[in-house]
Amino acid sequence: MRVTSSMYYHSLYATNNSKINNELFDVNKQIASGSKIQYGYENVTTFTDTMRLDNEITTLGQVKKSTESGYKVANQTDSVMSEVSDTLDKMKTLLIQAANGTNDSISLEAIADELKGTEKNLKSLANTSINGKYLFSGSKTDTKPISDDGKYQGNDGKLNAFVGANNQQQYNLSGADLFLGEERDIKKEITSNVINKDLINGGIIKADSTIRDLMGDIDDDKDTVNKNYFYIRGTKSDGSTFKDKVEFDDTASVSDLLEQIGKDYGNDGDTHLVDVELNSNGQIVVRDKQKGSSKLDFHMVGAVDFDDTGRASVEDIDDLDSGESDYNTVKNGDNHLFVHEFVKSQLDSTAGAANKIKGIVYDRTEFSKNGATLASNMPQIVRSDNSFANASTKISEVADISKGTAGTLDGTALKLVGKDINGNDYDVQIDLKSASNGGSSFTIGGNSYDIFNMDTPRTAVDADKMTYQQLMDVVNMVVTDNLPASNTADDYDRAIVASRSDAKTELSYDGKITFSDKTSANTKATVALYDKNSDNFIKDPSVITFNTNNALAIRDPKTDFFKMIDDAILAVQEQKTYPDANSGDMRNIGIENAIEKISDLENHVNRMHAKVGAQSNTLDTSLQRTQLLEISTVSLRSSVIDTDVAEASLKLKQLTLNYQAMLSSVGKVSKLSLVNYI
Fold first, then answer.
1. CA–CA distance, 51 with 53 (Å, rounded to integer)
2. pLDDT-based confidence at residue 655 (cuts at 50, 70, 90)
3. One domain, residues 339 and 487
4. Which InterPro entries does UniProt cross-reference here (predicted)?
5. Rounded Cα gap, residues 638 and 349, in angstroms
6. In this structure, are strands 167-170 and 274-278 parallel, antiparallel, or unpaired?
7. How far apart, in Å, are the Cα atoms of 443 and each of 83, 116, 440, 461, 536?
8. pLDDT in tens, 133-145
9. Sign of the Cα pseudo-torsion (455, 460, 461, 467, in order)
10. What is the per-residue pLDDT across 253-307, written as a single tens digit (0 to 9) for each?
11. Does residue 646 lie in a domain region?
12. Residue 502 and residue 424 share a domain
């Protein structure tokens, strides 16, 4: 076979030259660019790994940025919480100082002023911001969380940092948790506010005193035994209500009365649901044995007819209003029906209720007025979880549905009484009925109107499905005098819209019904809302209450941060060691009880502080982990895509030598001829 020049070129030079040139080009390109490949087709595996690692580096960068931002907020919150805790400790020290009994009026005024300054500092801390974003406003970071009057204006929104794939960590502490949070380990404790004196022997009544000592007598004849009646009502920790009329003669002891109160709450030989005792002022203290319930409530009034004409034993408690609440007036006068008040308030009785002896009235009271606003004082609390009701909460979720027809509100009647925004009287009955009984309605001036649901077709709402919003719509229509033109769904809706132009009825942050008049800065309206059976001790107790002359709450699982502080300051201002309905603010809890409240508040803040500390530590750990992962991933990416300069340089040198050797070989072979083979 003849070897031609062309065959020789292709077999020895052309193929090797192209291959080596390509390799030299690739190596030079790698050294110049610093990357092993420029395009995906050059090495699919390297390209795929690089894209994956680039995505991980981008994600880690986002995680790092998010975590750093969250950590700054959590760390700042941690610092603020330390200051809040220290400030509360200072406040508690001042209260203990105020309670020691050695301070004169001037000293107590000075302590009250210092407490006010402390509260101002706490409000400033509560409104701390970073870069214009408030720490304690929840997700409403542009809203100042605490108003000048101590009301919370934020929400319960959580802010989360992105700390990894499908992994988030909360970094804020909302004011809803801090200022309105709940301590499930606290047992509610309530107290009457009238100091009970021994009317026979002088001094303060004690548990071993007799009922005669508590209720008095108009003569010294102990052989004549008087009949004493006590009208007791309240709410148990499970939300069920009770009403009881009990009789004791003069020889019974006060401890017998306390034991009976305990039985009304459900105490028996095997079950102990509450502790009932007297404090050092002879006031009745009821302490829940169940943790985490804010429902406990109490009211009581006593009566004795020293003439034994039966006036003290009544069915309608309003009939006791014919007596006298001042013992000396009874003893020295002609009216010998003595009515002993145990709980008093400044609340006005509604039309038709006892109004001379206000301690008789429990829940038939007018909402408190402040300019254009009327506000109730009873939080609406859901039985199942102790949360505050909102507009969409069903009334049946709050009310005691064990009364009447058990398991339902069907047959319950509420009274809505007062004056509308024009100053005209109104008297409304709200009938809660099941759908099978025609549904719920309200009646005013002889006209009845269905309370329509939103179903299709529109019908009167079932009693157990009626919400607070539907109840508040009725209140708003009545009090603004915007009633439906006819009993149709369309007219009902139009009346609601018209009423909202004149006023707004809503639930406050702490579950209390408030009415705000938009037509006047000093409303003429009054509102009283209560169970129709309230005054009658033969009928079932009120299944729900809205505004009550009730016992004072000393301890409560629910926190109202600045209200608790205001109560403490007021106690020092009024120089009350214990509650005393006969001076100053009748509802003032007193310094000793304020100390206990501030202690609970301290514990709550410390728990919140621990929560923030845990968030901060978690974010710090996450940040450190992310930084390490970022470094590791960048290093791994470098090993995958970046050129190893030393290795590439060695390869370049090898390829260059190979190329030169090939050229030398080709040159030498090209010089050969037939002469070389002869």
1. 5
2. low
3. no
4. Flagellin, Flagellin_N
5. 82
6. unpaired
7. 55, 49, 10, 15, 21
8. 999 999 999 999 9
9. positive
10. 999 999 999 999 999 988 899 999 999 999 999 999 999 999 999 999 999 999 9
11. no
12. yes
Q: Using CA atoms in the order 639, 645, 647, 653, what is the torsion angle rounded to 10 degrees?
A: 160
Structure letter (DSSP) for residue 521: S
Task: Please tell me whether the peptide bond between 457 and the residue prior to it is cis, using omega within 30 degrees of 0.
Answer: yes
From start to end of 590-651, where are the E strands? Answer: none
Token pair, residue 529, equals: 């809302």
Task: Round to whole Å and give the CA distance between 97 and 577.
Answer: 12
Terminus-to-terminus CA distance in the chain, angstroms? 18
Which element (helix H / strand E) includes 298? strand 297-305
Domain span holding position 12: 1-34+661-678
The alpha carbons of the chain give a radius of gyration, in whole angstroms, of 40
| Structure tokens that stand for 514 in this block | 């408030």
Q: pLDDT, tens digit, for every residue of 493-528?
A: 999 999 999 999 999 999 999 999 999 999 999 999
Same domain? For 203 and 291 the reply is: yes
Is 307 domain-assigned? yes
Give yes or no for a contact between 509 and 380, defined as CB atoms under 8 angstroms apart: no
Are 548 and 359 within 8 A, CB to CB? Answer: no
Which residues does 385 contact at the CB level (< 8 Å), separation at least 6?
none
- Spatial separation of the C-alpha atoms in residues 155 and 567, rounded to whole Å: 24
User: Residue 676 is encoded by which pair of tokens?
Assistant: 């070389």
Q: Which residues contact 225 (CB under 8 A, 6 or more apart)?
A: 249, 250, 251
Give the integer Cα–Cα distance in Å for 151 and 137.
Answer: 12
Residues 418, 519, single domain; the answer is yes
Q: For tokens 């040159």, what's the residue?
A: 667
